[in-house]
Amino acid sequence: MYAGGSAGTNSTYRANRQAFEKYGIIPRMLVNATTRSLETKIFGVTHSSPVFIAPIGVQAIFHPEAEINPAKAAKALGIPFILSTAASRTIEEVAEANGDGYRWFQLYWPRTNDVTLSLLKRAKDNNYKALVVTLDTMSLGWRPHDLETAYIPFAHGWGVQVGKSDPVFMARYGKQPVTDEHPDFPYNPTGIDKGIMDGDLKCREDTFFGMEWLKEANSGLYRDWNDLKFLRENWEGPLVLKGIQSVHDAEKALEYGVDGIIVSNHGGRQVDGAIPSLLALEMIMKSPKIKAAQQSEKLTILFDSGIRTGSDIIKALALGAQAVLLGRPWLYGSIVGGQAGVEQVLRHTLADLDNTLGLAGFTNLSEIQGKGEDVIVKLT
Ligand SMILES: Cc1cc2nc3c(=O)[nH]c(=O)nc-3n(C[C@H](O)[C@H](O)[C@H](O)COP(=O)(O)O)c2cc1C
């Protein structure tokens, strides 16, 4: 439920999928597509495909090996991996599992600058090459599935391991236990959870129930564009904003000097009724400023929310994305089959992409990326 559920009536989740069905690929015949390449260059690094592993937190609730599964699978298949701040393993453990694989770190921006700086340092020291700042999750979305079951994994002590293992955090709050066996832990089926179920807004906004250490370990504050300067000044590598859904914000991102954006609505888990992510991509790519910035390599554009098949990837690329993040599909692979399950989902996705690309008469991604109506058409 926690993985599959989205905000509200799942309307945005469904819209994400339906948006792909509103486009059709136009296949070309008598093209020799025997030799094909899925190679993709992002921030100067060439990858064997345009697929990244999306950051997904709290994986210990799904599989005992948690984030280790996708980290190892990513390394085995040469796929870039993005680690969430809401992970249930530490930055260091996951880096070790990912070895000399290629990885990024996704930041849920802590409340204080010293903890933030410490996370950035740990990410850099452990070879996470880019920083992805997720902007759409300053509190959790209104998710009826989780409200009905009164389920917030963080309130059980899961998904706060990156924060809790931080030396600056530890110096301030002391070592905190990994599970909900803490004597002060607020989890109580008839108390706090009832507050959540009753829609107690104070309780939801203050997700961590007044426990300062828990808030610091993993909790967002509303920020503004000027706050980004702090990250820009303190992170040398590429800075990428995740959760962009409007032309306005994409152009602002450019103005504030970020290197990339991920057009995403968090798989429909945050704003119920938000527009499908593919439509957001289409709107953003109509901006001449964004298009020019992409062409001059000033701004890199990635996409997620709803990617399930090879043809979905072709459509997102044709609309202007340079790479995509795969989310729930690999998580389901991990739940069912651990590392092997993640690998199988990734292999199938790439094989489907490669096969569909060839059958549609293309040999490499430069023939489709940003090519719009040469490749796809909107169905009426
Ligand atoms: C269970 C779950 C946990 C997630 N956790 C995070 C997270 O910690 N950080 C983040 O930036 N995005 C998180 N996401 C969003 C994904 O990165 C991605 O945007 C989303 O899964 C895309 O939608 P799709 O999986 O339906 O294609 C999470 C998504 C799911 C399903």
Automatic annotation (TrEMBL):
Any Pfam family hit: FMN_dh
The entry's keywords: Flavoprotein, FMN, Oxidoreductase
Residue stretches making up the FMN hydroxy acid dehydrogenase domain: 1-378
Required cofactor(s): FMN
Family of the protein in this entry: Belongs to the FMN-dependent alpha-hydroxy acid dehydrogenase family.
List of residues binding FMN: 55-57, 84, 106, 108, 134, 242, 264, 304-308, 327-328
GO molecular function: FMN binding; oxidoreductase activity
Ligand binding (glyoxylate): Y2, R143, H266, R269
Keyword Oxidoreductase: yes
Gene3D superfamilies: Aldolase class I
Species per Swiss-Prot/TrEMBL record: Hebeloma cylindrosporum
Protein name, as recorded: FMN hydroxy acid dehydrogenase domain-containing protein
InterPro entries: Aldolase_TIM, Alpha-hydoxy_acid_DH_FMN, FMN-dep_DH, FMN_HAD, FMN_hydac_DH_AS
Active site: H266 (proton acceptor)
